[in-house]
Description:
The protein is an alpha/beta fold. Helix content is 19%, strand content 30%. It contains three helices and nine strands. The protein has helices at 21-38, 54-61, 114-124, and strands at 14-19, 44-50, 68-76, 89-92, 102-110, 130-139, 151-156, 161-162, 178-181. The strands form two sheets. A six-stranded mixed sheet has the order 4-3-2-5-6-7, with helices on both faces. A three-stranded antiparallel sheet has the order 1-9-8, with helices on one face. Strand 2, helix 2 (54-61) and strand 3 form a beta-alpha-beta unit. Residues 80-84 have low confidence and may be disordered. It binds inosinic acid and magnesium ion (MG). Magnesium ion binds next to loops.
Amino acid sequence: MHTTKPAYNPLDDIDRILVDEITIKNRLKELGQELNEAYEGRDVAVIAIINGAIIFVADLIRELSIPLQLDCIRVSSYRDNTKPMQEPEVIDKIRLELKDRHVLIIDDILDSGNTLSRVSQMFQAMEPASLKTCVLLDKKTKRSVDFEADFVGFRIPDEFVVGYGLDFAERYRQLPCIGVLRPELQNPPEWS
Ligand code: IMP
Ligand code: MG
């Protein structure tokens, strides 16, 4: 007899969905509108912090009706190794010239604030005409640096979330929604 193996479904590893697919889609339309109004008549350099912002930026820029150029920056996060709260390190630089440009940095989530404050400082030194940040998620945590994003998709409680670009050990980025991982699959204790 021929038996089929059950298909892998990343949703099986999710304890609870925090933001569903439709809610993300609707909010992205609104966020796109906010950005179209804020940047009306301007040409924007959009810089995505990858890998986390990949899905968000891909969907968000398709809501934008302003001229823009897209580039990516890769930043290593302390979450990629076991040492907590390590300074984020830029490991792949951008190619766009940012001097006198209107720069919009896009990231998946604002947590401690270390990543965005570090990247913002770095870009500020390139003398842009303006510099703003946009995040899909703002986690209600104690920031380790004083930093707030200019544009926010959703404010969420202090829980480890995956999906829609956010990962756990590079997995679950493909989920169309944002959810909390089942407790037994969650972070090693040193991450909390
Ligand atoms: P921050 O530097 O602490 O603000 O953290 C930003 C980075 O940490 C994000 O770009 C994510 O890659 C990662 N991160 C923070 N919280 C979460 C989470 O709940 N799930 C997945 N990644 C997270
Ligand atoms: Mg990550």
